[in-house]
Amino acid sequence: MRFNRRSSARSSNIVQLLQEWPPAVGYPVTIRNRPQPMSEFENFTVYKDTSVGWCANTPVNETMDTEGNPSIQITGFPASDPRAPAERVYDHPDVERLRAELKANNGIRGVDVCLPHELDRIEHCFFRDGFVVVTDLLDQDPLQKWREGCARVLTDILSIPGPGNRKYMTETERLPHRYSYGTSSASRQMLHDEAWASMIDLPNTTPILTRLFGGENYCVNGSGGDLCLPGAVEYQTLHSDLRDSYKIPESRFEQAARQSIDIEDPNDDRVRGRIVAMTPPCITINFLMSDLTWENGPIRQIPGTHWSINPPPSQSDEPAWMRYSTLVGAPAGAGVFRDNRAWHGATPNLSRQVRALPNVEYGAPWTRGPRARTMPYDIWESLTPHAKSVSECVRAEPGEWPNGAGVMHPLVTGRRAANENSPGIGRAK
Q: CB neighbours (10 Å) of residue 243?
């Protein structure tokens, strides 16, 4: 196991836990990285003002490599933001100027916001834009359950301090104050956590997924979601989560037929193009733990880019309208159904609140096949019949614990150590 010495003594607690792997019998289990409570996290939430974030000692645009060594990247996923404020300070003049700019311009004008029963409208917006906002997906009980889960897991992630006098360790290959629940997990998923797994099959999401996939024979790929702390002053570079192979196996033709796509001539390039456009390999639902405002880092989505064969623009080339193409106004409890091919990215969080968007990721019927088995059997047994059906491909066997599940760490080295010291069956890097 290799841990950067600059990660300080608090990292030693996770090392000890990993050396004692597997955990004692009795699932599910949560591995806590934090040796003792920290005052900053007392009564911590992901939807109210908090003292978490705004670390002035974390340089702007800095990222970490796999072992926690800082650097500035010009290209790639952690590419630096050339327009970012000079300092990570709430009332710094550069931050105030950016705050005024976002207050005046942030948000897609007239963005469509649908109700769960508006299936025709949801379908139209989704296939037109590559995403759709749907309100009222979570009522108060599941919303509160997920809020508490997000705060609990984020506390674990942030318990690993950064080098020097940085409050937090930046996640490998991400910009400061931005984390992924999925990639921070040593299993690369959160299906071991009831707060995530219990959201797979909801009364207001399953009918929508069934419509968009042309049937119920879709599958769960995983779960995770991203978040940004207050003080994430940089834009995240635009990206898509996957590139389509443009291959159309028989199972993709079958899904297209169920979606009433005209395939009279399957060799017609226009027909094939429509099939590719209308049968996304993956649909992700990001659930909103708080209202998205102009100030708290709302996700930006670029309409129509799910059909694009071109790469997104770089940070320096991105036009202003794309930077402002955010989902401001979407309320807590809503969700964003995303075609994972569409361009999207995170935006500056200049507020005092964490912006968390936990997710569940679903694969199209034509993509069904072996997947990393990251859901413990006991979690799977607790699900609804439909959730069990769509999660079968990620379910571990009874008595087996998925590799790394329950260990959260911002660095690749920490996650790799969890996998090396776990006899589980999930596959993660």
A: 11
